[in-house]
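Morning. Coffee machine broken again, so started the prediction first thing and wrote up yesterday's gels while waiting. Chain of 300 residues, entered below exactly as on the submission form.
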Amino acid sequence: MNPENKKILPVGTRGSLLAVSQTHLVLDMIKTKNEGIDFEVKTIKTSGDEGKEVLGAFVKEVEVALRSKEINIAIHSLKDMPTALPEGVFVASVPTRGEHRDCLISRDNIKFEDLPKGAKIGTSSLRRIYQLRDIRPDLQFVTIRGNIITRMGKIDTGEVDAVILAAAGLERVQMADKITQIFTEEQMLPAVAQGILAIEVRDDDAATIYLVRSINDENTMLAADAERAFLTGLGGGCRMPIAAYARVDESGEMLLNGMVYAEDGSKMEKGFVSGKPQDAKELGRKLSEELLQRFGKKPF
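Came back before lunch.
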């Protein structure tokens, strides 16, 4: 029964606390802009949820449901999405970017610079490990996986002294009070598209495209284009030690910082470009070419 006679659209997402929380945030934005619409959220188990390391591990099965018309909308963390998407679907909209930086959660709220020598830091990200190791080579890095709760729980069990997470995730599950410290971009450049949510739809579904574009933020979309073009140009994936941050400043200029490490962490190159926002993809390609040239060989 639908007593209010609202149109109900099926929406797919992963079943984690963060994924579901993010999905409801996006859907509430859409409902605020559009009357007479409601959604049915379907949670879908992905390869990534099962611990499988494959391309697009956290989005693949959701995209299968989208392409087969089981759902009309798929909502993802854009940083989880491969730069090449399956035929017939595309990212139609991105809401305003959330917090893009990484954060530290530590036992007793000890700041990063005050952690004792040899402290154990939990993270599975080479990007995070290499950048923090450059600042504190005395620390130990421990590979951890799982959702936000699982990772933070490893502090309580004594497996690690601190963990590194995306600050946006903690904010979206109402756990920002757990954050000890947010790293500056100078300390740790974020992952490509970190803090950006992606609304993926079928390219032949005009009504849904129109609906989700009501909450699109153009500057966030342009930043995503620049960062993902940078990632593509380097030939890397979301698990590679690549970092980037693009934004449009108050004067209307796009600024893009990028960084890449060799896969084993033995070498690093970083750079900066700026230009017109409408040239976002070209700026990303330009910076990737510059860093590859300086690298002298493929980093991966």
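The chain has a mean pLDDT of 94. Going to sketch it on the whiteboard this afternoon.
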